[in-house]
Design goal:
The chain has 454 residues and is an alpha/beta fold. It has three domains: 93 residues, Rossmann fold (3-Layer(aba) Sandwich), CATH 3.40.50; 200 residues, Mur-like, catalytic domain (UDP-N-acetylmuramoyl-L-alanine:D-glutamate ligase); 137 residues, Alpha-Beta Complex (Protein-Tyrosine Phosphatase, Chain A). It is 33% helix and 22% strand. The protein is built from 16 helices and 20 strands. Strands 7-8-6-9-10-11-12-13-14 form a nine-stranded mixed β-sheet, sandwiched between helices. The chain has a six-stranded mixed β-sheet with strand order 15-16-20-17-18-19, with helices on both faces. Strand 10, helix 9 and strand 11 form a beta-alpha-beta unit.
Length: 454
């Protein structure tokens, strides 16, 4: 695509939007950056960086009022492609695209795309570590925070690109990766998607355009994942922590095994440093991909046993007075909180709550009642709905704490109520925007508060 002198609109001034604008400018395009925030709603440093770019800046509630002069429109992941203004522009002949779509068009290297409700970042990062340890020219980007156009000019045909792909990035994609990884599919982002059907369908492009020369790696433990994988025409591989698979990876008598090129033991499950069954799912998924890419088993073994996980995902923070503190701030759904709760057998103090995403807390409530939780600290806008779900599921016999306003107060209360052998977990099951800037801010405040404990 020749971008020189093209009149291009980029909708969304977040990380990906700014990356798209910078790339388009470097290719000679005339760029306008549009965002619904007013200038005052941006941080001072952020708006200064934006104003350094040679662009037209359109901010505020009328940011979508006039698309008539643009030849191309790039939407950022948080912008729905069916906005009336975008639909009208498309009818007039304007090309509607995204950074993800452009990257797929330009990328000279094979792409490994990873999607799912939980575990995308962990799985993508572990595969990346395996490939780097094997000496491969690997790149990691997408929803994990590195917009892939930032490294497009570095790629060669023998590079390997790992992309964490959200439903927002996938829903209008018209190409599929060479290797598609389908992790657990449950419910997520129902504050943005119209319903669970749209959410699930939005992920279909990761497999829809594959052919018989491609590969798909499917979580066998989730019916929705199997259904999505069945759409693909690629060679199918499976992974499971519950049963054997004929081709892929699974858990056998406490070992992670690969059945790609024969049957090979990769690692003992108890050697894995990241806790929880959901993380074992991520590991067997990564092992299956490593097998497809013909990585030697001993290299995969070394990468797995040295992998400590990602920040804000059941991240071990500190042990004080024989009480362990874990930061799982990236948990923004009930399903992720369930996984965190089930990851530990010890008595637990769990910090739950935040801003709403229209989540269903029914299954989480049942998990709370049956998994050795002694204290719930409830925070944020969703306290009422979480309590209602728990009361509907039964009677919670532990202590419930409400009304705390700062993370320092929350952590100090958790420590006061803990005894040696307990585990304290921040796993909110909700978004963060009622009390914090975002989930990393929430997690960082938790870590700081824990480190400040005497």
């Amino acid at each position: 695509m020749n971008l020189k002198d093209k009149k291009v609109a980029v909708i969304g001034a977040g990380v990906e939007g700014l990356s798209s604008a910078a790339y388009l400018i470097s290719k000679g395009a005339n760029v306008a950056l549009l965002d619904k925030k007013s200038e005052e709603q941006f941080g001072t440093g952020q708006i200064k960086e934006i104003r350094k770019l040679p662009i037209k800046l359109v901010l505020g509630k009328d940011y979508l009022s006039d698309f008539s002069s643009f030849e191309l429109i790039f939407r950022s992941p948080g912008v729905r492609p069916d906005l009336p203004q975008l639909v009208d522009a498309k009818k007039r002949g304007t090309i509607i695209t995204s950074q993800t779509k452009l990257f797929f068009d330009l990328c000279p290297a094979p792409i490994v795309g990873i999607t799912g409700t939980k575990g995308k970042g962990t799985t993508a990062s572990l595969i990346f570590e395996i490939l780097k340890k094997a000496g491969k020219d690997a790149y990691l980007g997408g929803n994990i925070g590195v917009p892939p156009l930032q490294f497009i000019d570095k790629l060669k045909r023998d590079s390997i690109v790992l992309l964490e792909l959200s439903s927002f990035q996938l829903m209008d994609l018209e190409k599929s990766p060479h290797i598609a990884v389908v992790l657990m599919i449950t419910s997520e982002h129902l504050d943005w998607h119209k319903d669970i059907e749209e959410y699930t369908k939005s992920k279909e492009p990761i497999v829809r355009y594959q052919n018989e020369n491609d590969f798909v790696v499917i979580n066998k433990d989730f019916p929705s994942s199997l259904k999505l994988g069945d759409i693909s025409r690629a060679k199918r591989y499976y992974f499971s922590i519950k049963e054997t698979v004929e081709r892929g990876s699974y858990i056998d008598k406490g070992f992670v095994v690969s059945v790609i090129d024969g049957w090979t033991t990769i690692v003992r499950a108890d050697e894995v440093k990241i806790p929880g069954e959901h993380n074992l799912q991520n590991i067997v998924a990564a092992v299956a991909v490593a097998g497809i890419l013909e990585i030697p088993p001993e290299i995969t073994h070394q990468a797995v046993i040295s992998f400590k996980g990602l920040p804000h995902r059941l991240e071990f923070v500190r042990e004080i007075g024989k009480v362990k503190f874990y930061n799982d701030s990236a948990s923004t759904t009930p399903e992720t909180a369930i996984a965190a709760i089930k990851a530990f057998k010890e008595p637990k103090i769990v910090i739950l709550g935040g801003s709403g995403k229209q989540s269903d807390f029914t299954e989480m409530a049942k998990t709370i009642l049956t998994n050795n939780i002694k204290v719930m600290i409830l925070i944020g806008e969703e306290v009422k709905r979480i309590k209602e779900a728990i009361n509907a599921a039964g009677k919670f016999s532990g202590t419930v704490v409400e009304g705390l306003k700062t993370m320092q107060e929350i952590v100090e209360k958790a420590e006061n109520l803990s005894k040696p052998g307990d585990v304290v977990i921040l796993s909110p099951a909700c978004a963060s925007f009622d009390m914090f800037n975002n989930y990393p801010d929430r997690g960082d405040q938790f870590k700081d508060a824990v480190k400040n404990l005497k």
